[in-house]
Structure formats: structure tokens, C-alpha cells
Hints:
alpha/beta
Amino acid sequence: MKIIIAGAGDVGFHLAKLLSYESQDTYIIDFDGDRLNYINNHLDVITKKGDATSIKLLKEIGVDSADLLIAVTESQNTNFTISVIGKSLGAKKTIARIDNPEFLNECEIDFKQFGVDFMISPQELAANEIKMLLNQSSFNDTVAFESGIFNVMGTALTYNSPLIDLTVKQAKEKFANVDFITIAIKRDYESQTLIPRGDTVYEVNDQVYFSVPNYSMKDLYPILGKKQFNIKNVMILGGSSIGEKTARNLCEDNFNVKLIEKNKEKAESLAESLTNTLVINADGRSLEILEEENIREMDAFIAVTGNSETNIMSCLVAKSKGVKKTIALVENMDYIDISQTIGIQSLINKKLIAASNIFKHIRKGEILELANLHNIDAEVFEFEVQENSKVTKAPIKDLRFPREAVFGGLIRDGKALMSFGNMQIQTGDKVIVFCLPEAIATVERFFK
Length: 448
């Protein structure tokens, strides 16, 4: 599969990184020579310095034989232009990163006729991610499959958890009445994500990811030593496009929302468009302002200004004032791994979310959904099992599935089933798989 990526920023780099594990024929174009040199030194892809809107350059790298052209530069207009030119020159499919979420819902215009097959808005995706995190208040990461029939949930273990010092096998025996599968563990002192086995021991501060059917969700909380709490009052710091979309999303679900924006003109505009949100024109970095706006009465605090450090520090202040749930938007990918260390429940990166969303268009096999977990470099897939695929040939325990991957459950005829060793996967099943990057290609072959 030949893939051309225009833009070597965070989205483009993360996409190229995921593709480099699979021997895809990948090209990446950018003006910035330093970025391209970094990519050359770290990834097995082909780089090209220059203007991705150049017809000559696109022809040089064979855009007419490209299966996919992905335009993810910082400029929406440039991405549209690249997609239109690339499609005209023969690219089979184009994806453009956009900033204006109106384009996603505007049914009067068929952008495909202009050459843009699919559009993605990082801001829109980030706002949707925030809403999902609030709906699962005790977890810092959550992914729903098939409208929540199966869910992947992430949380940090504390001393209160009955899991501490138990092995995975002992935990399953002790809590046999609760259906869950531990699919991954990330530890502060280890850089690598751990795929747990039966003898793996749960430790304090482990960031643990569970695959849980919907009927077991409420039973998982006591095992974790956590209580489910409802979020009603939410404060948002920053009137960016993500802040505005988040406020709109939450008000539609009857949350009580306060939004703080320090720019007066922007605040007035938001007050006009967000009729159900209390918009406050003030500097939300001020502790005095936060106290005046009753920060202690908030159930959740969401910081989405354009400054990562401001967002992190504001969330730490909110936590110190008793706010149960804090979410910070960060631009620096390196910050994603430290959320648990510094005490913030969730750090999100809109570019990482966008890259993962685009990535599912690249997958081979029958992939229905793909999600990225924030604190680890891995993916969660939902495959639809095809007739005669390798995964149907034997019970799970006899499949010789790679150790860098684990089954997280399956959905058959709309019902959640646990994917333990004796389970025989059948044609038509929808299977959830957690997978480290180096095993993606191997896992895909089981579903082909």
C-alpha cells in the first residue's frame, strides 16, 4: 500500500511512526528539513523536502499510484489544495485535516466531488473525547465499542484497590463474578507497556487498562477501590474552538457549564453563541478568580487554552481545591506519558487523537474501529471476523497469538462475550484486540 503524507508535524509524524512498523510504502513531504532529518533518523519512511501543493513534486513521488494521500499540514486551505490536486493526479483516496467543524456537518456541499474523500477535525475529536471522559468519571481513559457493549477503561491503581499485590490469575479467581480482562499495564518506572500474563502482579500507581462488557461496568469500581460519582458542574478554562465545542456538547447533555475566557471580544462572542453556558471574561490562571467563581463546587475542570503549561498548572490548582475530575489539553506529545505522575486524571492531545482516527483508514483487514490509549504507545482494534480467517481455525489458547497482543473480548449477535482461552471465534464476530505497534502486522494476518 502506497501512502503519501503531506505535513511532518505531530499528526504526520505519529502516522508515519505507526506505518513504519508495517513495511508500508510511505512518503512524507514537508518544507522543514530539520523535521525530515529527525524522521529519517527514527523511522523507516521516505522523506521529500518541498511544497506538497507542487504538481511537479507530487508527480515525482508517484501520486498517481498512491492508495492514500493524507494532508495534515497546519493550514486547512493547504490541505484542501493538496487533496484536490492529488486526487486529480490519480490518488485513489484523500484525507484532509480541517479546522472548521462546519465542513463535517454541511450536507449541502459534497466535498468528494472536489477531490476530498474524508475530512477530520482535531478540535471536534478532542471535544468528543472530553465528553466521553466526563461520562466515565472515575477513569482517565475510555473507549466504547459498538455503542458501549464493550468498553476499554484505563485508571491508576491506588492503595485502596483490592487488586494490589494480587496476580492477574488470582484477581480473576477472587472476583470470578465480575467479567473483565486486564489488557495492559503501564508503570512509572518502565518505559515499555506491559501485556499482562497470569503471574503479573498489580502494583500501586500502575496505570491499568481493562476490557469490560457493559453489564460489568458498575461491578468494576469496588475492585479498583473507587466510587462512581456523577459530574454535573463543569468549569472550562479557555474559549478556543475546543472549549466552545466542549461547552456546546456538555450543555446539550444538561451539564452546568462555566467557561472562562480572558479575551473580552472572544468572551462576548462566546456568550452570544453559547446561550446555555455562563461565560466569564477573566484570567482563569488567577487563583482569586477561580475562588470567586466557586472552583470548590465544581465536579470537573477542563483546561483547553493554547498553552500546555497553563492547562497543566490550572488543573493541578483545581485538584488542590477538591475538584474530582481534571482534564488538560497539551500540545507536546511528550507530556502524555506523565499525567499520572503529576496527578492529573487525563491529558489529551488533539493531534494524537486525529492521527489515530486517520490511521483506521489505512488498516488492512476488516477493521471496524481503532482507538489510541493516551498514556501508552499502542492501539485497540475492533475486527470483524471474515470467513476462513486464521483466527477461526482453533480456540484462542491454540492460535499462537503474538505475546505483544491480547484479546479484549468479542461481540456476537449483539452480545458481549469474554475471550478466554477455550473460546472459539466465529465468522461474523466482532473482536477487540489490544496490540503493541510491533505486532500490528502479525495480528492483521490472523483476521485476513
